[in-house]
Amino acid sequence: MSELRTHAAEIVEQFSDHLDLDVEEVESRLDNLVNEYRVPVEEARRSVVNSYLDEADLEREELGGGESRAVALADIDEDEQWIDVTAKVVELWEPRNEAIAQVGLLGDESGRTKFVAFETSDLPDLDEGAVYELKNVVTDEYEGNFSVKLNRTTTITELDEDVEVGDDSVEVEGALVDIQSGSGLIKRCPEEGCTRVLQNGRCSEHGEVDGEFDLRIKGVLDDGQDVHEVIFDRESTEELTGLALEEAKDMAMDALDTTVVAEEMRADTLGRYYRVSGPQLGRYVLVDEFERQDGPVDAEAALIKARSI
Ligand SMILES: [Zn+2]
Q: Which phi and psi (to 5°) does residue 230 adopt?
């Protein structure tokens, strides 16, 4: 028996209490997806099963077995996964390429993700502001950013509901147990669109350049269970430390040493408790807002704990 035939027979068996399916017909649907549309076998099977679930008006759970593939947008963290999402079309953008039918931003409570639909997929257009259940979309990754691609096997169901779209912001709190190197008074590459932090006056891309001063803190918050890496930009660093860029430059000038700035910042902040929120970028939370927390501030204990990890 061919592989597809085996899958078909299993599907027929799976639905035997609900639908009177024909093995050959199921096989030909699988064959069409696999050989015509180049869908991986497992995905073709899921897609066919989904369509029969709809036909029989069943939920997957009622068949026993099989996991839900519904994924929150912010949880997408792998390339080429076939998933289902329920999301609102937050924005539609002008496609820059003839092959693209629609491109824009989907949002759900967890956050936002770009989506693309191609002309060849021949799908109905999505409307801005409408909420859809999109089954069988494929995840895509480009330079660490994830998007979803609609494709010929995608089923689109408009839902009569609204979705409160989240902003990808996360909130973490804990004792500031470390300020990492690259914090304090730093210099950035002045080249257009670069902004890389210079190491000994050199940009890794543009070589030796006359850098521009900036302030930042790359810190580590420890909540007793996990550590979170956070980055304070100039504005939030000034607010956190009370040290403005101009003062920091003067300090460094007087000492003929830029590291005094980070030292001063350490003295003011290490061991204190903060709650910060902002978007998560890779392993860092970029601090948009923060507040200092009262309560048990046991700097010594937090530092000892941090060193013992
Ligand atoms: Zn540069």
A: -130, 150
Nearest to 260 by CA among 272, 243, 284, 235: 243
**Rounded CA gap, 187 and 273, in Å?**
28
Distance in Å, CA 223 to ligand 1 centroid: 36
**Mean pLDDT value across residues 103-127:** 91
**293 and 191 in one domain?**
yes
- Structural domain containing residue 59: 3-63
Please indicate, yes or no, if residue 217 is contained in any of the structural domains.
yes
Nearest alpha carbon to residue 74 among 7, 161, 158, 139: 139
Alpha carbon of 193 to ligand 1 centroid (Å): 8
Cα separations in angstroms, 97 against 63, 86, 91, 118, 230: 42, 26, 17, 10, 37
Look up the pTM and report it. 0.49
Task: Determine the distance separating the centroid of ligand 1 and the alpha carbon of 204, expressed in angstroms.
Answer: 7
Centroid of ligand 1 to alpha carbon of 205 (angstroms): 5
Residues 194 and 300 in one domain: yes
Q: Tell whether 223 is covered by a domain.
A: yes
When pLDDT is cut at 50, 70 and 90, the band that residue 307 belongs to is: low
Give yes or no: residues 212 and 146 share one domain. no
65 confidence band (pLDDT: 50, 70, 90)? very low
